[in-house]
Amino acid sequence: MLTEISISNFRGFTELKLAGLGRVNLIVGKNNAGKTSLLEAISILADPETLTPLPGLLRATTGMGVDRFYRWLIRDGQPQLPAQLAGVTPKGEMGVSLGLSEKPPKPPTRPGQQWVNTRFGILYARILQGVTPLRVRALCAEHRTLESAKAVVQAFAEAVRSPVAEQQMESVLRAVDARVGTLRLDLEQKELPLIVVDLGLSERVPLSQAGQGMYRLVAILAELLGAAPELALIDEVENGLHHSVLEQVWTGLAEIAERLSIQLFVTTHSYECIEAAHAAFSKRSDYGLRIIQLFRTRPGVEGRVLDRDLIEAGIEGGIDLR
Q1: What is the pTM of this model?
Q2: Most CB within 10 Å of its CB: which of 96, 136, 138, 310?
Q3: What is the C-alpha separation between 56 and 66, in angstroms, rounded?
Q4: Which residue has the higher pLDDT, 204 or 129?
């Protein structure tokens, strides 16, 4: 997993260095502090091939052409200042250069390098150094389109192929709602199979009728268990979840992250989410949680990583860690 990250000239980041990252990293900061931008930088660093689907991974791009999206990945849209993304893992260092070129750059010389043609030029992600790209999965806050709903169903189908993964999912869901029995796919719907859940009623009900929180949690767990990525990005993890179930959700995420060796980078606006995460990880033998605080300053964005001692001190002292 990534233990250190360095970012320069990417979106709102002039220079950002983060060290001491953990298995699970909770990213906090005010609106427009760069939380989603940090997730995008991590995605490109871990696997440059995510550059192509990046516009729809974590942001609502309605009304914004992908040309403009790609241009502003470079700080201030300046092609003469390539973005530099670097990271450290136990296996070695990773490095990616991201820039705009008027002429086609040399053909990729390493697997995973990526070019995207735009009317502003050719945006490239060039691997400078590093270990094999990581398997990355990005999870969005909402699943309201047909395509996103299909992605949830596909991930769920992959997850429940393994009896162990199916039991893990149901165990976590049962901790949130004791009524949960089993989950199945209803294949009667031709266009899109339904995920149905046993809530102790006369028949299973569509998952969407069990509440947004339950749907959100199944979507997250299905992606993690089905795709088994090495690194997962979750934007606004608390979306649709009542504060009373957040500790159970974090307990499940911590368990799955450790069992499957997945590193999580998660954003939140909720202080209750921070408290719940700390409570869940405090009960584990390996604490594993870090909080990444982002602050917007005149030069750009600054950040720092809080470990267990600093997180505990902040919560016990009544300090708003957001």
Answers
A1: 0.86
A2: 96
A3: 9
A4: 204
Look up tokens 């398997």; give the residue. 135
Q: 142-146 — which CB contacts under 8 Å span 24+ positions?
A: 142/239, 143/215, 143/219, 146/192
Q: Which of 262, 267, 314 is nearest to 288 (CA)?
A: 262
Residue with tokens 């200042």: 81
Q: Distance between CA atoms of 281 and 251, rounded to whole angstroms? A: 7
Structure confidence by residue, pLDDT tens digits, 43-93 = 999 988 888 888 878 876 555 566 678 878 888 767 677 899 999 998 889
Q: Distance between CA 85 and CA 75 in Å, rounded?
A: 13
Half-sphere exposure of 28 (CA within 13 A, CB side): 21
- Residue 115 sits at φ, ψ, to 5 deg, of -120, 145
Q: For strand 4-10 and strand 13-19, is the pairing parallel, antiparallel, or unpaired? A: antiparallel
Strand, helix or coil at 44?
A: helix
202: helix, coil or strand? coil
pLDDT in tens, 203-250: 999 988 887 778 878 888 888 888 889 999 998 888 877 888 888 888
**Nearest residue to 215 (alpha-carbon basis) of 176, 261, 248:** 176
CB 180 within 8 A of CB 253: no
Long-range contacts of 17-22 (CB under 8 A, 24+ apart): 18/292, 18/303, 18/304, 18/305, 19/305, 20/290, 20/305, 20/307, 21/263, 21/290, 21/292, 21/305, 22/287, 22/288, 22/289, 22/290, 22/307
